[in-house]
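Hi there, hope your week has been kind to you so far. Would you mind checking whether the tokens look sensible for this chain? I owe you a coffee for this, so here goes:
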Amino acid sequence: MKKSLLVVLACALVTVTAAAQDLSTGGEAASALAAKGKMVLASNGARLGVVYRVGSDGSAQMILEGRVVAIPASTLSSVDGRLTTSLSKSEVLALR
């Protein structure tokens, strides 16, 4: 009885620890998407440009039409293995 209780408690601890790690790495997952040199695609699949630098918040910074823009990490995702933003080109150009 004591051994089975110990096994149940150990499993519960592992589950709680794994769930806490998933919650704590949410921002890291977004920042892991953006990497220097990766091509960024707009929401319609058009090429925007190459990531020039990754911000500390995971944003993809790039030069677009002669201006540095920072695409928020919250808009980035991997679609078919490609770095894609949910924003259109005009929305990206409106960013500062």
